[in-house]
Write a structure and sequence with these properties.
The structure is a single chain. Strand 5 and strand 6 form a beta hairpin. Helix 1 packs antiparallel against helix 4 and helix 3 runs antiparallel to helix 4. This protein has two domains: 107 residues, no CATH class; 156 residues, Umud Fragment, subunit A (Ribbon), CATH 2.10.109. The strands form three sheets. The protein has a seven-stranded antiparallel beta sheet. It contains six helices and 14 strands. It is 33% helix and 27% strand.
Length: 278
């Protein structure tokens, strides 16, 4: 391969490096550095996946910054290789093809077995999740527990919902004057610090269920669900509610959710578009 100190060669290498970590260096024949830059991108990516599984927002952002920094550094480095050969069309094709195949396989495997990311479009989970928030989901945790946030597919399978599990298979659940009873035991409901910003009829309260503590919103927009008579949750299903209790489409409307339709447990909001400061 002839060596040409051309801007064209640098641009092609940088473009390949942008498409595939290490791809630009591989196309230039620098195999060792290609492996280094590939590892510098995918090792932080594995750490990012681990951060979601562990529920660590700090590690998630640290891994993201390291991964993006490595990508940027690899691209820039392509412009500083002194002897800059012009990549052959064969090396370009092999780089793009192998990179695209690896990316698709890794992405699909990760989404199927480990983590998913969703955008929450509605306010049914206020105050915990704002409309437009980006959430990280651990697909490894698919055995629901009371008080946890879970994402699940709708019965039609066309969209995903995020709700809080309040009752498991074998439990009974009823609601009386905004108070939730599981197996005839009331979920602990106490005052919550902060002021609800959605009007005088909106109130914030704190619930505690099986060691999980979270806030719920009552009376938003003056809407109110009628009391729910005792419902027996069948085996293999869970009863879910939105934290925005009076403005949520949940098990009070569509019934208990099959456990097999659960995508995973919501670990954290990795990007929030708005916070009311409560």
């Amino acid at each position: 391969m002839p060596v040409r100190k051309t801007t064209r060669g640098k641009v092609i290498a940088a473009a390949l490096e942008f498409l595939v970590p290490g791809g630009g260096h591989f196309a230039l024949g620098d195999r060792k550095r290609a492996v280094v830059w590939f590892g510098a991108t995918y090792i932080p990516l594995l750490c990012l996946i681990g951060a979601v599984l562990a529920g660590s927002l700090t590690l998630f952002w640290f891994s993201t910054v390291v991964m993006l920094s490595a990508r940027a550094a690899g691209i820039v480095h392509c412009f500083f290789i002194r002897e800059q050969p012009l990549p052959s069309w064969r090396s370009v094709g092999v780089t793009i093809g192998a990179g695209a195949f690896a990316f698709v396989c890794l992405t699909e495997f990760t989404k199927t077995e480990f983590v998913s990311f969703l955008v929450v479009p509605t306010g049914s989970m206020l105050p915990a999740i704002e409309p437009g928030d980006r959430i990280a989901i651990s697909r490894y945790h698919r055995s629901p527990k009371r008080g946890e946030l879970v994402a699940f597919r709708s019965l039609r399978g066309e969209e995903a919902y995020v709700k809080r599990v309040v009752a498991l298979g074998g439990d009974t659940v009823r609601i009386t004057q905004s108070r939730v009873f599981v197996n005839d035991n009331p979920i602990t409901l106490t005052e919550s610090a902060g002021t609800c910003s959605f009007g005088p009829q909106c109130e914030l309260r704190k619930e505690q269920l099986d060691g999980n503590s979270y806030r719920v919103m009552l009376g938003y927009e003056g809407l109110a669900h009628s009391d729910l008579e005792s419902v027996a949750v069948t085996a293999g299903t869970v009863f879910v509610l939105g934290d925005n209790r009076d403005n949520s489409y949940d098990s009070r409307s569509f019934g208990p959710v099959p456990v097999e339709s659960i995508i995973g447990r919501v670990q954290f909001t990795w990007l929030s578009v708005k916070r009311d400061g409560n």
